[in-house]
Design goal:
The chain is α+β, with helices and mostly antiparallel strands. It is 37% helix and 27% strand.
Amino acid sequence: MPRFSGEYDCKLDSKGRFRLPAGLLKQLEEVGKALVVNRGIEKCLVLYTKSDWDKKVEELEKLNPYIEKNRQFIRYFMRGSSDAALDSADRLLIPKRLKEYATIDKEVILFAYLNRIEIWAKEAYDNMLGDEPEDFSALAEEVMGGTNE
């Protein structure tokens, strides 16, 4: 499983493309550049390696489609998912509907962590970071307190 890291500012060109920063390209060299872009749970997009995306799809295939909530989740989660091939200049085109969903205009922040790269409209990312928990220490204890590491 890839482990990405970093925070990168990018600008979209007039066609809705942005160039992947060198730091991310280097990280992608280790796992391959076959990518899938999809809606995030929040108003951002998520870039997965093709192999990690295939694992997500396998998880969804285990859900019983005869249960309404499962069908709704699968439909919403899969809506908009697209192969995201880099062009010869290492640029990525964001599909129009996904761009609209994430309210992306000209500037994006790529936030790379664990096995994903989130693509945020700059303003939305700044707003999300502005909603920091009042007591991060308490949140850390609640979320991570049960682990031994």
